[in-house]
Design brief:
single chain; alpha/beta; 7 helices; 6 strands
Amino acid sequence: MPIKRYVLLDRDGTMIIEREYLAHPDGVELLPKAAEGIRKLQATGFGLVVITNQSGIGRGYFDEAGLAAIHARMCELLAQEQITIDGIYYCPHTVEDACDCRKPRPGLALQAAGELGFDASQAFVIGDKALDVELADAIGAVSVLVRTGYGAAVEKKGTCRPDFVVDDLAAAADAILQYVAR
C-alpha cells in the first residue's frame, strides 16, 4: 500500500488572512477560496498539516494558550467546511534563537513526517513567503507559492524559485492535482 502524501500548509497569508502577530481568535478569518482548495486536497486523499512560525510567542506578544485558542478557532472554521487538519506544528522562537524548527529549517516538517508516517520528500509545501519555498527545498518537496498574503510581493521580488506560483489555495489544489496526475 502506498504511503499517504501530505500537503504542508503555511497558516498566515495562505490559509487565513494575514494579520501581523495575530494574538486573538476573533481575528481568524479564512482567505477566499482557502476552504475550497483545502477541501479538494482532503477529498482526493491528501493529509493536511499546518507548519507555522509563531515568533509572537518568543517576542511576548501572546502565549501558547492564546495560540491554542487561535488554532482552535481556525479548526472550527475549517470543520464548518468539512475539513480536518491532521496536525498543527509551530515554532515559538524568534529568528535570533537560531532553532531547528523555524521555517525554512526542516525541523517541524520532519517532526510531522515522523509522527504522521509520511515521506517529507513526497510532500507539497504551500505558502506565501520565500521561507515556505525554502522549506520545500530543504526537504525535497514540491513548492507552491500563493499570491495571497505576502505572495504577490515575493513573486515580484523574484527571491525564490517555487515549482508553482498560483493565485490562491483553490488554484494550488488544482496545480497539485495536475502534477500528481502526470
